[in-house]
Amino acid sequence: MWFSSAWCLTSGSYERPGRVRFMGMAVALAGIGVAAVDEGASGPVLAFVLVIAAAACWGASNVLTRRAAPPDALNSMVWVSTVPVLPLLGLSLLFEGWDRDRAALTSLDWSGAGIIVYVAWITTVFGFGAWGFLLSRYPASSVAPFTLLVPVFGMSSAALLLDEPVSPLRWCAAALLAGGVALTSLAGTRRRPAAPAPEPAPA
């Protein structure tokens, strides 16, 4: 996810991250390794493959968004969000069945409606719209590393709101992830030399 976005091709040249950013990548990947060790290898293989595929698709979407550079990121995200409706509805009918979908619709209350509004408008339209806005104005190698903070906020939110225990290894992973993102964010981008001023034309 991160590497495919960092090497995003724009304007005919690659966005090559510098040494400090590579160091940040290494630190953050170490944090992911620590989190994986803490979770163990007891999870299903198919779920792991799906997570890797989702990360690859996310990296590819960053590349495409960076190349497209829509002038209105929010409007673009609204139109993009209309595409998955029919495929997701078909998958739900295929794997869950009409009876479960109908039961979910008939049992929808105000809490469920609020969750739908939050997921649809706040996390999807606004969140991805802001993400597209950042990708259209800043290098992908500067923006993409912030996705690694998702598990940090997930663990801290679960601990604060749901009283879920957080092991020392998870805290160590969170510290490594935050440190890696900080390194990539604080790394100064290499400035291109200014083009020489054109010589005045002879009279």
The H/E string reads HEEHHHHHHHHH
Question: What is the β-strand count?
Answer: 2
Task: Note the main sheet.
Answer: 2 strands, antiparallel
The overall average pLDDT, rounded, is 75
Number of helical stretches of at least 4 residues: 10
Report the uncertain regions.
1-13, 189-198
Structure description:
With 203 residues, this protein is an all-alpha fold. The protein has helices spanning 2-6, 19-39, 45-68, 73-81, 85-95, 98-106, 110-137, 140-143, 150-161, 168-186, and strands at 9-10, 13-14. The chain has ten helices and two strands; from the N terminus they run H-E-E-H-H-H-H-H-H-H-H-H. The chain has a two-stranded antiparallel sheet. The longest helix has 28 residues, at 110-137. It is globular, with a radius of gyration of 21 Å. Residues 1-13 and 189-198 have low confidence and may be disordered.
Sum this structure up briefly.
This protein is mainly alpha-helical.
Question: Secondary-structure blueprint of this entry?
Answer:
Elements (H helix, E strand, L loop, with lengths): L1 H5 L2 E2 L2 E2 L4 H21 L5 H24 L4 H9 L3 H11 L2 H9 L3 H28 L2 H4 L6 H12 L6 H19 L17
Antiparallel strand pairs: 1-2
Helix pairs in contact: 2-10, 4-7
